[in-house]
Amino acid sequence: MKKMIVIIAMLGLFVVGGASAQTAPLCLKITRGAGVRQSNTLWSPSYRYADIGDTVYAEELVMSSDPPGYKEYPATWARVGAYTYFVVSMGTDVFAVPCEVQPPTVTPTVTPTHTQLPYTPTPTAIPTNTPTITPTVTPAPHDGTLYVATYGNDNNIGSYADPFETIKKAVDTGTSIRVMPGVYDERVKITRPTIIEAVGDVTTQGFLVQSDDVTIRGFTIIQLYGTGIIGYFGSNSVIEDNEFLYNGDIGLKLSNDTNGWIVRNNRFHRNNTAGAEFKGNNHLVEGNEVTHTIQYSPCVPPTYGADADGFRFHGGGHVFRNNYIHDMPDGPDGYDETECSIENLANLDNDYDYDSHTDCFQTFRGSSNYPIGHDTLFEGNTCKMSPSSEWTGGFAQKAWQGGDAYNITIRNNLVISDFVSLFQFEGCQNIVYDHNTFIGSNHGNTAIKYIDCGSDAGSVKNNIFYGLGDHEIKNSSVVLGYNCVYPSSTSPDPGDVRGLDPRLDSNYHLLPGSPCIGAAEDGSDIGAFQ
Fold this sequence. Notes:
Elements: E1 3-4, E2 6-8, E3 13-16, E4 19-20, E5 26-30, E6 37-38, E7 55-58, E8 60-64, E9 75-80, E10 83-88, E11 94-98, E12 146-148, H1 167-173, E13 176-179, E14 182-184, E15 188-190, E16 194-198, E17 202-204, E18 207-210, E19 214-217, E20 220-221, E21 229-235, E22 238-240, E23 243-245, E24 252-259, E25 262-264, E26 267-269, E27 274-278, E28 284-286, E29 289-291, E30 309-313, E31 315-316, E32 319-321, E33 324-326, H2 342-346, E34 359-363, E35 373-379, E36 382-384, E37 398-403, E38 406-411, E39 414-416, E40 421-424, E41 429-434, E42 437-439, E43 448-451, E44 458-461, E45 464-466, E46 472-473, E47 479-481, E48 484-486, E49 497-498
Parallel strand pairs: 12-13, 13-16, 14-17, 15-18, 16-19, 17-20, 18-21, 19-22, 20-23, 21-24, 22-25, 23-26, 24-27, 25-28, 26-29, 27-30, 28-32, 29-33, 30-34, 31-35, 32-35, 33-36, 34-37, 35-38, 36-39, 37-40, 38-41, 39-42, 40-43, 41-44, 42-45, 43-46, 44-47, 45-48, 48-49
Antiparallel strand pairs: 1-8, 2-3, 3-4, 5-7, 5-11, 6-10, 8-9, 9-10
């Protein structure tokens, strides 16, 4: 490992190759940022996690461009016995300071000096070793719900009148928690069924969920250097009415070991890479808004091949319903390199996108950690993308992308995009588009692509295609028909209404007299909103 000389002027300390020039032990003080990132792997018993404000005793303190496990990240790291802590230096203030907690020392017993009294009193027998009796304080009764407030104290009982100061204290103490308004610089682990909700405007760094039946409601979650909420495992948890802002590694992540979560009525704004990523199975994702996802956050090292998506999905049995994904900009060529700050991230004039092929919904095949999406329903969603005239770097924006995905139903959605979807590779089977409205900007782009899918690729029926080009179908097994296509220069498929204006109002509903009314295969109207 290459070591460098570190001069910490504010303390007058020199750290050379891991050794300190003073005798007092050094500690690592984290004063800003997400805190210490673990080396190597999250579950390794050889590494531990520390947070903002922690002081970590350092048997060895090294500045290095080659920390263990994260060779691409410059970092300060500290070895503590068998444990290794290190802090990604980007956007984090780390100082070497004298350890605040020293080994215990033995204090000699001091014999008090006897003072002669002015007179000799009559001796009075005094009981020896009589303890001082402290009255027992009976906690004020409360309803079983614990309260947290910035003006509280963790030595309190956690009632409304005597709240705790930290969310962690409340989570460690009980399972029904209300957090009063304020900013809480904490990222809290939840390991048992818990209901935790914000009362008013509450900002925190997020939660790590390792349990069934957890509800997190009403928070503003900002984790500049990582993910706002991570669901490591567990079933039947609820994430609702939260706002995920500026998170450096996707707003919300659910792992392969999660099942049956509800993610509802949240807002994901300006998060890096994607608003949320869903692995596991049987999740309900409904009523959420995703906007202005970015590709290269100034708070984390850039990742090759990064995108800026709405939702990513893996595993199966999911339902995505009534979500609204919009304003996902590409920006001009190149991206802005600014300092990491909430102010910079909040400024929409700062462009953090370079060459992302942005999707409202994306799945992809990869390692066993990224199983392909399958058996999933998309219903009632609205996806609004930039017109193709604004795409940069040759990368398109679209509503869906999935290699090898199978058993995907796309029904009753509104998509405003010059490229609707791309499904490809031999594994993609039974991709069904039914009763959707697809709106383009008359740039002649291909609307839907099936490329090299399997023998039962799916069907495209009862949809409106307005201002889009025709389909690129490289599978004879795709069933087409009963679509309204305008304009169109190709021969109709069975039941099609082609070359006739569908007559849409400003909300893309059919107006009276539309040729698409009653023209679907089952006699209903073609398009969404059925």
